[in-house]
Amino acid sequence: MTLSLVFAWMIACQPADSAAPTPISAGAPPPAAQAPAATPDEGVVAAWNGGSLTYKDVKADIATDLIRLEAEYLTNRYDAETAATDDRINTALLEAEAKKQGLADPGALLKKEVEEKTPAATEAEIKELYDANARKLRGKPLEEVRPDIERAVRQRKQGERFGVYIGELRTQYGVVVQLPYPNMPRINVSVDDDPSIGPKDAPITIVQFAEFQCPYCGSARESLDEVQKNYPGKVQFVFRDFPLGFHDRAIPAAVAANCAAKQDKYWEVHDAMMKNQRALEDADLERVAREAKLDIEKWQACRKDPAMEMEIQKDMADGTKAGVSGTPAFFVNGMFLNGAVPYERFKAIIDRELAGSSAG
User: Model's pTM, two decimal places?
Assistant: First the structure.
C-alpha cells in the first residue's frame, strides 16, 4: 500500500510569457536511448573551410544557462527522491502504528487520528475562504456555495492535521532521514552594495532577487526568518531588486525602500511593504515612510532622483545575467533556488556548506 499526498502549487511570480513544461503523454514508454558521452572542452563540434568551433567556445556563450539547467535538474531530482523517501516512511509508520493499535489497516488509523480529530469549519473560516475566492465565484451567494466552501476548508484542515500526526509518528519512531543534498553548481552573483543583514564575513551568503508586489516574495519571508533564527551570525542576507514588468507598483516600491536606506531605515520600510503588498500606492508609501520616522522631504527628493531607478535596473541586469526570470530567486553561496521554497531547502544547503567549511 502506498500513501501519498499530492499538492500542486506555484512558488514564484513569473512573466506571463514564461514557457510551461511540456506534459508527458501517457502510453507506451519510448525506446531506451543511450546518453551521449560528454564532449571535452577542446573537442571540435563544428568545422568548415578555414575554421572550426570547439565545445568550449559554445559553452562560453551559454555558461550561466547551462549551470541553471543543471541546478534545476538536480533540484527536481532531489525533490522526487525526497517525496519518494517521505512516502515510504509515512507508509511504513502508518502500517506499524495501525498494527500496534490493533486496527485493521492504515486507513482506519487515519480515520481515528486525522478525520475524527479534525474540527469542523468555523463560520469565520468559511467567510474568509469565500471572500478570498469572490472573483472566481462570480457573485454567487455564500449559501449557494457553502457546501463546497465547507468541504474545501475541512480538506485543508485535514491536510494540516495529517502533517502534525505524521510529525508525531516520526518523533515517536525516531525517524532520521539521511538523503544527501546534491552537490549543486554555483553561479557567481555579486552582493553589490545592496541592503543586507548579518555579518559580511559570514560563511553563508544568501542573495535574494525579489520585488514588493509579488505575493511569493512576501511568503518567502517566513523561511528566511527561520534561517535567521536558527543560524545566528552565520548568514548574511542581501536583498536585490527584480521588479517584474506586469507589476506596476514594484519599481515605485523599490525606489521608496532604497531611499529609506539613505536614512538607514531600509528594513523597516521593506518589512512594512512585504507585510501589506496590496498597499503600494504613493499615499501608502508615504504613510510607511512616516511610520518609519523618515525625513519626508529628503525621502521625496530621493524618489525623484533618476539614479535610484538606475540602481534597480542594474540589479535586474545582474539577476538576468545570473539566470533569474521570476521572483523570488535565491543564491545560497552561489547555489540557485527558485521560488518561495520551504525552510528545509535552505537548511539542507546551509548545513552542507557549514559542514564543508568545518572539514576544510
Answer: 0.76
For residues 34 and 87, what is the distance between their CA atoms, to the nearest angstrom?
Answer: 30
- Per-residue pLDDT reduced to its tens digit, 49-83: 999 999 999 998 888 888 888 988 999 999 999 99
* CA–CA distance, 151 with 190 (Å, rounded to integer): 48
Angle at 310 between CA 304 and CA 313, to 5 degrees: 130
Query: What are the cell numbers at 47?
Result: 568545422
Place of cell 500500500: 1
Taking the C-alpha atoms of residue 358 and residue 166, their distance in angstroms, rounded to an integer, is: 33
Q: From CA 351, how far away is CA 360, in angstroms rounded?
A: 14
Residue 276 amino acid letter? N
- Quickly count: other Cβ atoms within 10 Å of residue 297's Cβ: 8
> CA triplet 243, 338, 86: central angle to 5 degrees?
150
CATH topology of domain 196-359: Glutaredoxin (3.40.30)
Per residue in 175-205, pLDDT (tens digit) is 999 898 898 999 999 998 999 999 999 999 9
| Pairing label, strands 204-210, 235-241 | parallel
283 touches 292 (CB < 8 A)? no
Domain with CATH 3.40.30.10 in the chain: 196-359
The candidate with the shortest Cα–Cα distance to 213, out of 238, 250, 159, is 250
Among candidate residues 78, 113, 116, 77, the one with its CA nearest the CA of residue 93: 113
Q: Cα separation of 326 and 267, whole Å?
A: 22
Please report how the helices 266-275 and 250-261 are oriented relative to each other, as an axis angle in degrees rounded to 10.
150
At position 38, the amino acid (one-letter code) is A
CA distance 149 to 142: 9
User: If you ran DSSP here, which 8-state letter would residue 220 be given?
Assistant: T
